[in-house]
Amino acid sequence: MEVTSSNNGGHSSFSSFRVYLTSLSATPSRFSRRAIYVSTSSDEMSRLRSVPGEHMRRTLRWYDLIGLGIGGMVGAGVFVTTGRASRLYAGPSIVVSYAIADLCALLSAFCYTEFAVHLPVAGGAFSYIRVTFGEFPAFFTGANLIMDYVMSNAAVSRSFTAYLGTAFGVSTSKWRFVLSALPDGFNEIDPVAVLVVLAVTIVISCSTRESSKVNMIMTAFHITFIVFVIVMGFLKGDSKNLTFPAKTEHPSGFFPFGAAGVFNGAAMVYLSYIGYDAVSTMAEEVENPVKDIPVGVSGSVAIVTVLYCLMAVSMSMLLPYDLIDPEAPFSAAFRGSDGWEWVTKVVGIGASFGILTSLLVAMLGQARYMCVIGRSRVVPVWFAKIHPNTSTPVNASTFLGIFTAALALFTDLNVLLNLVSIGTLFVFYMVANALIFRRYVPVGPTKPWPTLSFLTLFSITSLVFTLIWKLASQGSLKAFMLGASAVVAIAIVLIFQCVVPQANKPELWGVPFMPWTPCVSIFLNIFLLGSLDAPSYVRFGFFSGLIVLVYLFYGVHASSDAEANGSFVVKDGQVLKELTEV
Known about the structure:
Residues 509-559 form the Cationic amino acid transporter C-terminal domain. By secondary structure, the protein is an all-alpha fold.
């Protein structure tokens, strides 16, 4: 049953409450049609891009992307997650945790790059999955990633308060106040974090090009401070801290919590790499996507990896892992040392710059995700509005900025970080699956079951390996089961590679060693997902449930209305013009 109520000459499921109730009865039929509706690359680059009327200007080059990538990743990674991951999970082996997270991020970055080169739009993972698996999987993934961004930005802004206090020699408790009426984890009010988020919101709403310039300036200062911290860590640090804790009752050695601790740490610091995903959302504003995006995305990940590992070693040498401050690990390492107090203030200033750059880039990314989801009409098209003077998604930027500020006001850092990691891993897992599907399933009416069966079997095998690693008792039986699972996974990939030919080889830039590269990415993302704690999954399930409800009660009806009204249709000449630009 379809609803055809008129609203300004078109179909609307929301013209009145009575019509909306009638529309709900059509939810099953609409869901079955729209949920797996697959958009085309030309639709994403032309028709959907034309929905808001105004366009984003192509003003960015490869060096802008590298600067945005470095600025987006370094602040969050080193100054928010490193101390907590080292103190609670990995100890000195936090360096290895970063190496594992980097491998996973680099493989995922390759997948993102291939999509971004061939589909240079602002939608990032949402658009990639929409042209592969359909509308509902895309919305589920994109909405989860937006939640990741909001949670990450709230966490980063609260960490800014801690480092700003360090820079001025003021305790964090002086900047925040406690409301006893609120539950633990939500009772520390942080007005400074709110002001920072609102200020960045204003900057990103003014101009993307100017935002890039601001980011480049702050990133230059930030890297200078990073080099300073690395040098000071090696000069003042002690290699004994890499193996001995301060208290003898705590586990010792470079791997005090074993392999499980290393992977738990890797799962937490994976938040550090969410910045390159934000760079992929800039694709619609890049002058030459084919040349600039591969250099910008991969280059920024490679540079940041070196910085992360050096800073992790530096931090681990400065203090035994059981004395590291989870909130502000680097500045706190110099606190109380004779003649070194000034370093604490310098580190606090440098970290503040880094946190501001990561916040700026991530907020640029989250606004573009919301803008493109608005273009698809799954959320109100109001979010897709591009300001005619600034060429920025001003409505999406403002709404998400206020939402982020509200969370930053009262939510504890640990609550935010656990939720961010699981959502990020899930999104990267979906993009790797989407890449294999796009490469091996022919365009047009065809049977995708061989590829879908492979993706399902490989994911199940990876999950079995992860569960054995996490739950089975140590011993020869566990080693045998892990080895058997690995052999089965490799055999599945080999059989798929031999039996199913590639149907769509990229003309411009492609991920090497298909299908192995995205398969390793899929495995690592599943493995790191298995390293997270149960409460993280409870929170993820809760927000995923909310996303499903939004789609069922609003998204599927709004997109059905847009389909019935022909809202995505534009003149053929305009389509040709947009494709020629790209």
